[in-house]
Specification:
The protein has 286 residues and is an alpha/beta fold. Helix content is 39%, strand content 21%. The protein has a domain of 41 residues. It has twelve helices and ten strands. It has a six-stranded mixed β-sheet. Strands 2-1-4-5 form a four-stranded antiparallel β-sheet. Helix 3 crosses helix 4, helix 3 runs parallel beside helix 6 and helix 4 packs across helix 6.
Length: 286
Amino acid sequence: MSINIKNVSFIYMPNTPYEAKALDDINLDINDGEFIGLIGQTGSGKSTLLQHFNGLLKPATGQVLINGRNIAEKAPDIKRLCANVGLVFQYPEYQLFEETVYKDIAFGPKNLGYDQIEIDRRVRDSLELVEMDFEEIADKSPFELSGGQKRRVALAGILAMNPSTLILDEPMAGLDPQGRFSTMKLLKKMNEAGKTIIMVSHYMDDVALLCNRVIVMNEGKIVKDDSAEVVFSDQEYLINMGLDIPFAAHVAYELNKLGKQIQSALNVTELSEIILDKINSDKKLL
């Protein structure tokens, strides 16, 4: 399922003294099966852009197209079309509201008009996707669960609507190392199963590990859009923008400042191999 953003601009509180342009003539094409990292400083427009992908926000100018359809048009099937783009907000566990896990996950499919048999199937399938046992968890109150479990239930509620594209705003925020590892493993599995994933994150090591494409935003504009290798190789540009870079890339950056001429890397294993090769070919590195 393709998403095409064409000349989209968005203004908060237009025609008031507090008017602020959050998006400035954005053009973007998202294709099936991609895992995209969306990065930028706070206030760069990332979250505003995310909310245009499924119609939560309407552009001041421009169009948002899903499979070629303008989601601003008035048509009976637009609601279901937008449901193909599942948006998981930051700290989604705070959005749980039903008295049982089952009812919370069932809310989306029920709202889309599915019958009870289909709703039950979707609840079971989505819990299996997030690696939770239906019999053990379905009748529990979501408020009795741990933070990591709540996040998985919230994600299952989105997955129950069977979106082709999954959009996540800071999915690792507030998780302990085990929770981050489990979430990363789950997202990677879903992407390998065919889901398109767009992830906003300040954890650059996570972005480097998971994403095959990275989009950088600054002041409402897209300033970089390329592979993770290419984007994170421009360390000085990102640092000057106030962004973090992956740990391995940062080490390479600091070594290059010392004149060591080390190729950039996205992870420690890759960097270690680069440094060892450099040592073997150039003893002066020591």
